[in-house]
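User: Um, any thoughts?
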Amino acid sequence: MVGENLPGASQSPCGLVLDRISFGYNGVTVLEDICLNIGEGEFLNLLGPSGSGKSTMLRLIAGIETPSRGRIICRGEAVTGPGIERGMVFQDYSLFPWMNLTENITLAISKLIPTASKREKRALAGEYLAMVGLAGLGRKYPFELSGGMQQRVAIARALALGSRFLFMDEPFGALDPINRARLQDLLIEIWSDSKPAKTVVFVTHDMDEALYLGDRVVVLGSMPGRIIGELDVDFPRPRSRQAYLTAPEFQLLRARVLDLLRHYAIERLHADDTVRSLSEGI
């Protein structure tokens, strides 16, 4: 079980370390005693039910929120706030509607290369748009694009920051299955080709998505959020979607995740029944 035995968790010189993290607000504990090592270049998926604190964990490691207890170490340094080395992609795209696509991306480039000329920034923005399959659309505005295309722009903007870490909060959750599959494959291609390798932490409710994309899947339980298990996904890359999703080994992994969630749900039901019985004086 993750969190019980993490050698070097407190002094790891690289990657991301969550060292006994807890978080809550308004008297409600959202995450409790989270211990996790994330290796550099790893593609890690956070999977769990609503209310398990997946998005909160992402906001904590991005520095948007501050843990109530514990600490987060990024490449040997404590995370105390947002930083350019940690990029975020949200489900709602978060593009500026009054800016065209080039302007949305040059905003990120300006943070990374403030001394670049406008012409250089526009040229770089065009390269990032081409990287996500949107070459020549720089003058378009977000409202002129489909949801899948807007999410491509959001990914391009995050990449333009040059971040070593990419945090993605259910980025494909609102998309239809075809566009979702296309963007999953695009993300894997970009991640695989990145030099130096990017570390991706990806939040999803979708078990197949988690197992298809990731090197490792961390499963969370809820109320409060805690790690209930993890699975290494030891399948070679590149992965053929059809062959992978129908492979017996994939089905075994899927069954293991289901067992984790099923056992956790049964534990929660027993705990709720016990509390109810005590409150009723039985």
